[in-house]
Amino acid sequence: MSAILEVREVTKTFGGVVANRGISLSVGRGEIVGLIGPNGSGKTTLFNSIVGQHPIDEGSIRFEGREISHLRVGEIARLGLVRTYQQTRVYTRMSCMRNMLISMPHREERLRDLFARFPREAYEEAEMLLDFVGLYPKRNLPAGELSFGQQKLLEFAMALMNRPKMLLLDEPTAGINPTLINGLVDRLLRVNEDLGLTLLVIEHNMRVIMNLARYIYCLAHGELLAEGTPDEIRDDQRVIDAYLGAH
Ligand SMILES: Nc1ncnc2c1ncn2[C@@H]1O[C@H](COP(=O)(O)OP(=O)(O)OP(=O)(O)O)[C@@H](O)[C@H]1O
Fold this sequence. Notes:
Elements: E1 3-14, E2 17-28, E3 32-36, H1 43-50, E4 58-63, E5 66-67, H2 73-79, E6 81-83, H3 96-101, H4 111-114, H5 120-132, H6 148-160, E7 166-170, H7 178-195, E8 198-202, H8 206-212, E9 215-220, E10 223-228, H9 230-234, H10 237-245
Parallel strand pairs: 3-8, 3-9, 6-7, 7-8
Antiparallel strand pairs: 1-2, 1-4, 4-5, 9-10
Helix pairs in contact: 5-6
This protein binds adenosine-5'-triphosphate.
Residues 14, 17, 19, 37, 39-45 line the site of adenosine-5'-triphosphate (ATP).
């Protein structure tokens, strides 16, 4: 399977702290890949580097064969590579629909966009995606009235408004209840299968990532510790030690 994302020998430091050291990983088009590791192992830093939130010190990041490590967040999003966050980033006073509409492709976060009119197709797309995540009945409510888990579903739907080719999900199930977790996992599998969306997922919930990902990379202390299928990772003594040592 051809790689859609190729990370090669990426190093990122903050002052004296080496957050990522020589990390290489590859994600095939249409795959679901997991990124795990104890707290502080460098997962979020790697996501930030991939989507252009900060420059890297060394290495190369290629998306669909094109070097993107020098591009900015908006430019990378326009290529079809989008991320979500551990903490939701919805506008709590705006309705769910409005949150969806302002997430449309090629929009900058400018004030005038918050008040702009949108084409009818945008409304249809937003309604369809809200229905997909089970939030259609709540479409006119302020996003702040949704539970945390529902806000994460909304954020996921907002990311889909960008029609990405690949989504980077940062702890999609953190802080949400088991029923919503199952619903979210089900929808992630569906966007992968039905839309061919490639997913790279940071996840602390081992049951979730073992069921979701076909291949998993494990970081520890900013370095790649292990990689393999869920079964290989589950049995890898280095991974077990890294997690036990972290608690
Ligand atoms: N902006 C920053 N400035 C300074 N240090 C940073 C910054 N961002 C991350 N770090 C450091 O880089 C290291 C890796 O952090 P990172 O957040 O990438 O880990 P993580 O694996 O995502 O952790 P968690 O699972 O807790 O989210 C940590 O030591 C952290 O303190």
